[in-house]
């Protein structure tokens, strides 16, 4: 009997089984025997199919892991759908639907036998050491929606037969040694969202058929040897958000319609590209460029495309915005800045008080261990059951591929924190694109991401060498992060630890208005400094302040913590007593709070002695942000200035407590 994925056989089985169970006693033995025989005939193909998939999996194991080092759990006596086959997940009909073996250290080849898993919807073999070619037989997997073969050592061409896989949504083939041209047949994949072929040895032109990928959001062809023009058909892909063609040998006119991608369009290091001045770094097109465009890519106008989008009407292309009055309208009104300042101060004081009161031990050395309740985590079951979804590491290992320990679900059962797959993180950040990079520090980087539910998040990556090596300490730190709850703390939505990448990713809600540092040291509407505390104070859509990185130091190794503290001290946020005693108290946090208050009032990152003196004496002209142009409430500024000045007093006993700060602010409202 022919095998199908949403099995109609199961419906027939259910029907016959119900008849057998509920037959009246008067039914003749002949009828009962006939139904029993039919039941046997129906169940026989399913048993045979299960055995067939087991045989296929054993062939796949022999090819992927020829030395049986990493897939020893795959045995002929085990049930692939019983949970013992690492990286294998089955659907409700007990057929293999997912293989997740990313970062397992596999050294074999992708076998043609994989075509025997007819219900496979996800294949994740990235971050391994696989060699050989991509078998064309893979194209028979018509149910496959996500294909991840990136970061291996694959060679050969991209099989054109992949164009027959109509359900494909993601093709990740980057960072291999693939050669040949990009098959034009890929343009028939109407459900494709992501096509990532970067860092290979692909040659030839970009197929015009890719313009038919109506669902495409990300196309990455960078770091190859492609030539010819960027097809004008790409303009018609209305949902395209990210197009990267940098570091190729492309030539000709860049379609002006791609300007809508803004920072999502990367084309540098293609010397022969030309185009409109709106692209900035492109040279103007010449008559020779026009001739080459006509020769290389004949174009027939359609109702949705104009000739002007394809070929420049003259060699000198003018930018769209030529009027003298065209200016950048993104700068915030100064009244909005004032409202933002008030919101930041009011919420920040409450946040600081609660955080200090609950979570800071008095007179605590930074290297002493924090006593927190014994929490255990609860991870939502991953749809893909990825082996990389919650795997941590041993930072003492030299290779980031090695895994020192894994955060088991049985040890993390009570805390509501979503676990993400590495595939979700990669997809959300457009494969950690520089266009999505929000900031980078010595031990981490932050990316803007869009999850599959279209929600926008900020994803902080922490490198392997920066994390605590001990599983218990790491788990305790993550527990503390999730236990911090306050309306002015950036919400931690979930995490993903990848032993393959040697990184852990923390997923936070995204703050659309940036951070406080963007509003300090402003000249002509632009920020020139990236600071410590102000960068950790985010602003949401309504300019409500959100503190980020609260408790993050509990995940980091001691040397990284000390390094971060040195930076804070250099920027002036550390209280004088810490320099001499190495101890933190609540008054130490009060000092840092006072520095931030004075930074907001002055608009300056460097709070000098003269600014402190002017604030204490309410000499507004000597310290209030000049960008406000006098448009502020002097009574409110006076109250905040005096609070800030007292909080940064060098003598801890002279500083206000956070309780007193809140009372002062409350009385002034």
Automatic annotation (TrEMBL):
Q: Which InterPro entries match?
A: Kinase-like_dom_sf, Leu-rich_rpt, LRR_dom_sf, LRR_N_plant-typ, PRK1-6/SRF4-like, Prot_kinase_dom, Ser-Thr/Tyr_kinase_cat_dom
GO terms for molecular function, please?
A: ATP binding; protein kinase activity
User: According to the UniProt record, where is the region Disordered?
Assistant: 369-400
Localization, UniProt = Membrane
Q: Where is the signal peptide?
A: 1-29
Q: Name one GO cellular component term.
A: membrane
Q: Which Pfam families match?
A: LRR_1, LRR_8, LRRNT_2, PK_Tyr_Ser-Thr
Positions with biased composition (Basic and acidic residues): 371-387
Q: Which residues form the Protein kinase domain?
A: 432-669
Q: Which UniProt keywords apply?
A: Leucine-rich repeat, Membrane, Repeat, Signal, Transmembrane, Transmembrane helix
TM ranges: 335-358
Taxonomically, which superkingdom? Eukaryota
Q: Reply yes or no: does the keyword Repeat apply.
A: yes
Main location group: membrane
- Which PANTHER family would you find in this protein's record? LEUCINE-RICH REPEAT RECEPTOR-LIKE PROTEIN KINASE PXC1, OS01G0577600 PROTEIN
What is the protein's name according to its record? Answer: Concanavalin A-like lectin/glucanase, subgroup
Q: Which organism is it from?
A: Cynara cardunculus var. scolymus (Globe artichoke)
């Amino acid at each position: 009997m022919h095998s199908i994925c949403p099995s109609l056989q199961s419906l027939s089985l259910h029907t016959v089984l119900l008849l057998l169970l509920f037959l009246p006693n008067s039914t003749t033995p002949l009828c009962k025997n006939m139904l029993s025989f039919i039941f046997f005939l129906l169940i026989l193909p399913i048993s045979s199919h299960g055995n067939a998939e087991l045989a296929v999996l054993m062939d796949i194991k022999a090819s992927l892991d020829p030395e049986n080092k990493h897939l020893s759990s795959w045995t002929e006596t085990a049930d692939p759908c019983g949970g013992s086959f690492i990286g294998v997940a089955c659907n409700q009909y007990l057929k293999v639907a997912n293989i997740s073996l990313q970062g397992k250290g596999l050294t074999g080849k992708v076998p043609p036998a994989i075509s025997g898993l007819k219900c496979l919807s996800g294949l994740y073999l990235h971050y391994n050491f696989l060699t050989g070619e991509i078998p064309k037989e893979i194209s028979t997997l018509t149910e496959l929606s996500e294909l991840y073969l990136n970061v291996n050592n694959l060679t050969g061409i991209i099989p054109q037969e992949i164009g027959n896989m109509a359900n494909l949504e993601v093709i990740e083939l980057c960072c291999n040694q693939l050669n040949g041209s990009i098959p034009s047949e890929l343009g028939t994949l109407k459900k494709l969202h992501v096509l990532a072929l970067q860092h290979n040895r692909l040659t030839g032109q970009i197929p015009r058929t890719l313009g038919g990928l109506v669902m495409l959001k990300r196309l990455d062809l960078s770091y190859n040897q492609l030539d010819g023009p960027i097809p004008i058909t790409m303009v018609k892909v209305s949902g395209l958000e990210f197009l990267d063609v940098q570091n190729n040998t492309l030539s000709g006119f860049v379609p002006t319609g791609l300007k809508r991608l803004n920072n999502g369009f990367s084309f540098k290091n293609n010397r022969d590209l030309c185009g409109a001045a709106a692209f900035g770094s492109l040279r103007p097109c010449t008559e020779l460029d026009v001739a080459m465009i006509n020769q290389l890519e004949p174009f027939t106008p359609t109702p949705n495309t104009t000739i002007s989008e394809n070929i420049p009407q003259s060699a000198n292309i003018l930018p769209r915005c030529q009027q003298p009055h065209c200016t950048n309208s993104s700068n915030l009104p100064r009244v909005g800045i004032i409202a933002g300042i008030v919101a930041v101060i009011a919420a920040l004081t409450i946040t600081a008080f609660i955080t200090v009161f609950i979570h800071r031990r008095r007179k605590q050395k930074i290297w002493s261990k924090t006593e927190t309740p014994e929490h255990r985590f609860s991870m939502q079951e991953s749809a893909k059951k990825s082996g990389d979804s919650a795997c941590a590491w041993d930072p003492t290992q030299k290779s980031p591929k090695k895994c020192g320990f894994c955060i088991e679900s049985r040890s993390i059962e009570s805390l509501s924190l979503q676990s993400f797959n590495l595939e979700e993180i990669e997809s959300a950040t457009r494969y950690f694109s520089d266009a999505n990079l929000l900031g980078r520090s010595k031990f981490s980087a932050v990316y803007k991401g869009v999850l599959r539910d279209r929600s926008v998040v900020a994803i902080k990556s922490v490198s392997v060498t920066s994390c605590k090596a001990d599983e218990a300490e790491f788990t305790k730190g993550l527990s503390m992060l999730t236990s911090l709850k306050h309306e002015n703390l950036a919400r931690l939505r979930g995490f993903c630890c990848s032993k393959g990448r040697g990184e852990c990713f923390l997923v936070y809600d995204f703050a659309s208005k940036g951070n406080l540092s963007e509003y300090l040291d402003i000249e002509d509407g632009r920020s020139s400094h990236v600071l410590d505390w102000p960068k950790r104070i985010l602003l949401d859509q309504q300019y409500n302040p959100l503190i980020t990185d609260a408790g993050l130091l509990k995940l980091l190794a001691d040397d990284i913590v000390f390094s971060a503290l040195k930076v804070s001290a250099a920027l002036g946020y550390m209280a004088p007593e810490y320099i001499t005693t190495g101890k933190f108290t609540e008054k130490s946090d009060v000092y840092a709070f006072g520095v931030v208050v004075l930074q907001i009032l002055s608009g300056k990152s460097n709070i000098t002695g003269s600014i402190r003196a002017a604030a204490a004496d309410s000499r507004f002209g000597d310290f209030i942000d000049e960008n406000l142009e006098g448009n502020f409430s002097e009574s409110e500024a006076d109250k905040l200035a005096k609070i800030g000045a007292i909080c940064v007093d060098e003598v801890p006993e002279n500083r206000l407590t956070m309780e007193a700060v809140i009372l002062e602010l409350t009385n002034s409202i």
